[in-house]
Each structure stands twice: as structure tokens, then as C-alpha cells.
Design goal:
heterodimer, A: alpha+beta, Immunoglobulin-like, 1 helix, 21% helix, B: 126 residues, 4-stranded mixed beta sheet, 9 strands
Amino acid sequence: MFRRLNDIDRIFGTMDFFKNQMNRFFEDYESGRGNLTQGGVWPPTNFYDDGEAIFVYCVLPGMNENEVNIKLQNNLLTIKGERKATMPEGYAILRQERNVTPFSRSFTLPVEIDTEKTTATLKNGILTVKLVKAQAVKPKKIMVQAA
Amino acid sequence: MEQQTAKQAQDSPEIFKPGKTTAPDVDIFVNDDEILLVADLPGVAKDDLAINLENNVLTIEGVFTSDFAGTSQRREFDSTDYRRVFTLPKGIDVEKTSAEFKQGVLTLHLPKSAAVKPCQIEVKGG
């Protein structure tokens, strides 16, 4: 009986080994190629928080300021736009990989935002939206006083 | 022959430093005068972009180093190296190639040399 259990253990050990090998294989495969994000939604968007403000980073290569539409309504942030196809006149297409479909992404923000101080910049094809938190939700330092 | 233009040289360089390497998305157009290549390299500053053309092999490389503020709440993209290699057909006028880089989009003009440009042959009636 004991020997049998040991066998089962070994079988599972072997299966684990193969599983790890396969995972490593796929990691290697995916790291060499693929997009900025793996198969995800467009455009890839990051959220960062430094206490004072929430920063939204959005990958929008080749877009102009007036082609991006950012809307903040209550706690709902919507980033909308469309990249115009850069098809030049009189050329034949050999390869077309760049994304030109219209996009719209909405996010529910976890805190209240001071809409007056919101700024957005576009640099090197990356959009940065700075959403300053409302005074009431900013972190406060509590001083410890000696009794 | 035009299909060969777009054929990507499938080299897999050895990676010496950790981190991701991304193949940028490209559009390639062609007309009688030139090959036009448009590539998305978001996050790359002009100084971090390198275009190398050597023996009909075109290499586009860029570095995107993120400078996100604060702590991550949601992360869908991150710093990456861009790299893509193309084998070009013969007859590209290397001297006259030009490139623009604006908002993370590279536009590369690769003019064909006079020798390979198509020309009309007139048929004379007899």
C-alpha cells in the first residue's frame, strides 16, 4: 500500500515537472514577439496613484490632441478616439498591422476627483491624464503627540 | 517580389539584458517611386530610436523607459525594447532615405533607385 502511494506521488511529481517545462516554453515564446500587451483591449491603459493624484497612462501613438476625447462624469472616466488611417494616396498596401479602429474605454474611479485641476498631456504617443484627488479624500498625516 | 519586401527577417537575437522585447506594429506601402514604412513605437523618445540600414537589412530599434508616478493600481503596459528587422529588396537608394518621428510614430521613406523604377516602353506602329 505504501509503495503504491509513493508511485502516485511520483506520477504527480512528473506531471508537475512537465507542466513547468511547458509554462517556461510558452513564456520564452511569448517574450520574443507579441504586442505591447498580450491580446488585451485597445488602448493599453495604466493606473498609478501617488496619494495626491491618480495618473492614467494610455498608449495612443500618432494621435493628435484634438483626436482624443476625455470625459469625466461623476466617477466615470471615458477615453474615446479614433486614429485616422494613414493610407497615402497612390500606394499599394504590402502590410497593415497598425490599429485604426475607433476605441472607447471607461473606468470607474475609486475616489472623488477635483475636476478643476485635471490635466492631460500627450508625449511620444503616450497620453497622461492627471486626476487630482478631492481634498476630502487625500491622505492625511496624523501626528502622534506625547502625552 | 513585392511580397519579399515585407518578409520579415526572422532572427531571434540572444537577449543579454532582462526585460521585454516588442515587435512594433508596422504598415508598409509601396508605389513606383518608393517603399513607405510606418511603425508604432509608443513611448520612445527621438534620441532613443535607432534605424540601421546595412546590406539590405533594415533594423528598427527603440527603447521605452517608463516613468510612471506613484504605485501601480492597474498595469497593462510597461517599459519595453522595440526591435524589428526587415530584409529589403535590392535597389533602394540608401542616400535618399528619410525618416520622420512624431508622437511615437516613425515614417520611413525608402526611395527606389532609378535602375529599378518601372518605365514605359513605347510600342511603335509598323
